[in-house]
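Thread: quick sanity check before group meeting

JM: Hey all, I'm pulling together slides for Thursday and realized we never actually wrote out the predicted structure for the chain we discussed last week. Dropping the sequence here so it's in one place. If anyone has concerns about the input, flag it before I start.
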Amino acid sequence: MHLDYGQLRALSAILRTGSFEAAAAELGITQSAVSQRLKALEDQAGALLVHRGQPCTGTDAGRRLAAHMDHVGLLEGQLKSDLGALTPGSDTPLRIAVNADSLATWFLPALASVPGLLFDLLVDDQDFSADWLRKGEVVGAITANARPVAGCDSTPLGNLAYIATCSPAFFARHFANGVTSDAVQHAPMLRFDQKDALQAQWMQQHLGNKVTPPSHRLPSSQGFVDAACLGLGWGMNPELLVRDHIAQGRLVPLLPDTLLNTPLYWQSTRLLRDAVEPLTRAVKQAARKVLPPIPA
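JM (edit): ok, ran it. Output follows.
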């Protein structure tokens, strides 16, 4: 398949901006030209690449082709840098998969310490974020998987510790006779999304069996903390986010000394190692400041 990079730029701009009109403005061409380029690319690919809507979103094939265009932009930027012309990738966003709790606790300082780069963040569970690397749709990912994805480098970052917490009033209402399997079975639980297995892991590890409490779905790291403080339910919160709440008595652990450690790794595509190296270095430094090392 011969790829026309003008057509790929149009596709990438549509998915990045969410509309044909905004893509046209970004590329400095007419909206009709954007539509024509996309249609030609879809005809060549023999597949729908964009779901038309508000906003426009990519199909699996469309996202993969757009990611290829982003990777080409990074390589071109690196080449120009090597030739002394431009800073690498200065106008090409680095697309990264990151788990929400890292984003809420320690990851943003890493991005802020690398000026001159643009970022396109995709939020996904740490147990699934490596899938985006396998599909070639991101250049890097914060993941719980130590084993490198094919074609990628893997660097250990540290343990993100979680603690099962709830409000004192919630504890008194649901666990007056102790935190038992039966009590947890009936106590409302907080769950980030359908991929969130942290509560199940903690229950299996510390209660010895699997129970299925009634649960709230709440896809927000700070919302998780706020909901626990308000007595909406119990859940696994990053210790970094709740240590002050525990110290002030707004939250209490369900069981003392039962941290659940989640090892985190930075994986990035080897093909773009030089272009991504400043970010890799910043991620390692930011993690080292707050995350305990993963035991050997």
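AS: nice. Residues 60-82 form the longest helix (23 residues). The CA atoms of residues 151 and 271 lie 7 Å apart.
JM: adding both to the slides.
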